[in-house]
């Protein structure tokens, strides 16, 4: 049952407390009240109280004085004695309370000298091998400033102090009119550690969000680099450089389920960053039962001290190859999503559910990215297969063999690498170059296979294939480079090409590269109207001209790159020659 008081009663209690906590005020109020009631009582029987009091002074001055001041004196004395007894009782209770308080409790005078300390302080001194004379060393360096700020005032201040690896939160409390200050301090190491841990966990979540944003911003590249993804995720879980603390694992075993087996690698932190150990670890769940197989969709963590076994027995939970790389394992957390499994290994402090939750979050992220990567890889394979099929279909009525388009891809990739192009450019041209003649699907097969010289009308029809090729490939961003190659690979650097008579850098770089390698491969191939030329003769024709080709038709930078790797060009032709 709860009792409530209204505002009037609260005010009345506050007023009484204010009066009776001050003896002079209590004497004045109570004495005046007694005289007032005496005056009323005398009036009721027809006696004038003031006249009688004055007459008492005239007859017996001492008696009259006593009659006047005793109503004030008695309540003042009683209130004073009551306050003294109450203060004594409070001091007695305070004297017992610090003795039982597990916190550090000290009493300081206004200069900061220790007047009293409780058994907890004595135990702390013993733990630190200090004499009782050194008790002030338990206080923070600026404690006298705190004493001065609260002494003789009804206020308190708080501060923190780290002592021999122990975090202590102190409270300095002063009372109004009292020259001493009570100080209490409690070990806040666990609280501070938890706060740091929570802050670091929040930081890891923020980093993971940023990492996912960056990973998905590259989604349109066509593929994820799984190893880079793994390192990125583990870089968030593990520390690097000077920030290393026992909040972070020293090693992580990350594995993937593949055809019933768990296959993975150990990752560790070095001065160069997160690295992956070279040797793959394979676990067969049917015959082996190690820690990484625990925690299927559950949080799992363990500290060897809590498991009721020796640290040597604790090691049996881990694969021999893991123990060989990590050494003695003290504690771990693990999460197994059914697709990806992680175990994080820690040193020093005990791991908790918070560590396991962080690992679970990262494992779920890793599993999701892993699945996306596999799905994207499969989609990319299907896309490349379709591109290859279309390229081969375009040569069904041509005298070129299927090896021609493979060689064009390889030539183009090699030249793009020699020119220092980006990985994305190299990857894209490696599958796009083969689409250069896709427009020949629209050209009459008789023209494509004609052994002799083409008539003007036939050549006009042949020159239409770049435009048809660009239309077939359309406006898809994934086919943008293939379309520009199809449209521009017969343009000439000197402006004498077709279909648009472009010149110089107005021709896309991809088309300029394919323009060179298409000529190279055509010269090397045997045709019904010509033999296949040697590599050396082909280089001579390209660099000097033969009446049908002119070196000015080619981009000088592309031609320079081509010549710098001309032996690679020859190797590619020989390797894919029928």
Question: How would you characterize this protein structure?
Answer:
The protein is an alpha+beta fold and 578 residues long. The protein folds into 4 domains: 7-91, no CATH class; 101-187, Beta-Lactamase, CATH 3.30.450; 193-375, GAF domain (Beta-Lactamase, 2-Layer Sandwich); 395-575, Hypothetical protein af1432 (Orthogonal Bundle), CATH 1.10.3210. 52% of the residues lie in helices and 13% in strands. It has 21 helices and 12 strands. The protein has helices spanning 7-20, 23-44, 49-59, 61-100, 119-127, 143-150, 189-217, 226-237, 311-314, 320-326, 353-394, 402-418, 423-432, 445-448, 456-462, 465-473, 480-488, 509-524, 535-544, 556-564, 566-575; strands spanning 104-108, 114-117, 155-163, 166-174, 181-187, 251-258, 261-270, 273-276, 281-283, 300-303, 331-336, 340-346. The strands form 2 sheets. Strands 6, 7, 8, 9, 10, 11 and 12 form a 7-stranded antiparallel β-sheet that branches. A 5-stranded antiparallel β-sheet has the order 2-1-5-4-3. Helix 12 runs antiparallel to helix 21 and helix 16 (465-473) runs antiparallel to helix 17 (480-488). The radius of gyration is 46 Å and the shape is elongated.
């Amino acid at each position: 049952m709860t009792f409530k008081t209204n505002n009037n009663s609260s005010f009345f209690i506050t007023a009484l407390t204010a009066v009776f906590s001050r003896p002079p005020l209590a004497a004045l109020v109570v004495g005046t009240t007694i005289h007032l009631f005496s005056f009323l009582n005398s009036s009721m029987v027809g006696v004038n109280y003031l006249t009688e009091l004055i007459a008492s002074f005239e007859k017996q001055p001492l008696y009259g004085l006593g009659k006047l001041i005793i109503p004030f004196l008695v309540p003042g004395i009683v209130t004073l004695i009551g306050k003294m007894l109450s203060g004594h009782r409070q001091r007695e209770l305070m004297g017992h309370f610090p003795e039982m308080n597990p916190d550090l409790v000290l009493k300081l005078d206004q200069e900061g000298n220790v007047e009293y300390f409780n058994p907890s302080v004595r135990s702390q001194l013993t733990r630190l091998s200090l004499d009782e004379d050194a008790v002030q060393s338990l206080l923070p360096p600026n404690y006298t400033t705190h004493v001065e700020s609260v002494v003789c005032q009804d206020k308190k201040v708080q501060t923190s102090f780290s002592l021999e690896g122990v975090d202590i939160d102190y409270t300095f409390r002063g009372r109004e009119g009292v020259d001493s200050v009570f100080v209490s301090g409690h070990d806040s190491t666990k609280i501070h550690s938890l706060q740091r841990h929570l802050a670091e966990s929040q930081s890891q979540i923020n980093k993971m969000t940023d990492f996912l944003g960056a990973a998905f911003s590259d989604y349109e590249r066509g593929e994820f680099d799984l190893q880079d993804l793994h390192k990125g995720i583990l870089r968030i879980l593990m520390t690097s450089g000077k920030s290393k603390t026992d909040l972070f694992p020293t090693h992580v075993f990350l594995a993937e389920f593949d055809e019933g087996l768990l296959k993975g690698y150990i990752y560790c932190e070095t001065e160069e960053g997160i690295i992956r150990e070279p040797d793959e670890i394979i676990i067969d769940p049917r015959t082996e039962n190690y820690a990484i197989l625990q925690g299927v969709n559950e949080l799992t963590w363990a500290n060897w001290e809590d498991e009721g076994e020796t640290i040597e027995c604790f090691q049996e939970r881990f694969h021999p190859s893991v123990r060989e790389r990590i050494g003695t394992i003290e504690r771990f957390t693990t999460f197994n999503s059914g697709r990806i499994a992680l175990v994080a290994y820690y040193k020093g402090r005990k791991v908790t559910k918070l560590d396991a939750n962080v690992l679970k979050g990262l494992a779920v992220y890793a599993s999701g990215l892993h699945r996306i990567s596999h799905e994207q890889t499969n989609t990319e394979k299907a896309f490349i297969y379709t591109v290859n099929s279309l390229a081969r279909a375009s040569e069904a009525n041509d005298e070129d063999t299927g090896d021609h388009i493979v060689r064009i891809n390889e030539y183009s990739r090699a030249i793009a690498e020699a020119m220092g192009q980006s990985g994305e450019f190299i990857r894209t041209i490696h599958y796009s170059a083969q689409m250069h003649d896709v427009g020949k699907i629209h050209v009459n097969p008789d023209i494509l296979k004609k052994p002799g010289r083409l008539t003007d009308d036939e050549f006009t029809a042949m020159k239409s294939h770049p435009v048809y090729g660009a239309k077939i490939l359309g406006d898809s961003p994934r086919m943008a480079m293939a379309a520009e190659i199809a449209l521009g690979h017969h343009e000439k650097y000197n402006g004498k090409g077709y279909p648009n008579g472009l010149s110089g850098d107005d021709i896309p770089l991809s088309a300029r590269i394919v323009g060179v390698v298409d000529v190279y491969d055509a010269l090397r191939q045997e045709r019904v109207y010509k033999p296949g030329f040697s590599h050396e003769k082909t280089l001579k024709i390209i660099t000097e001209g033969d009446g049908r080709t002119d070196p000015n038709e080619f981009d000088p930078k592309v031609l320079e790159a081509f010549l710098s790797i001309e032996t690679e060009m020859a190797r590619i032709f020989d390797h894919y020659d029928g």
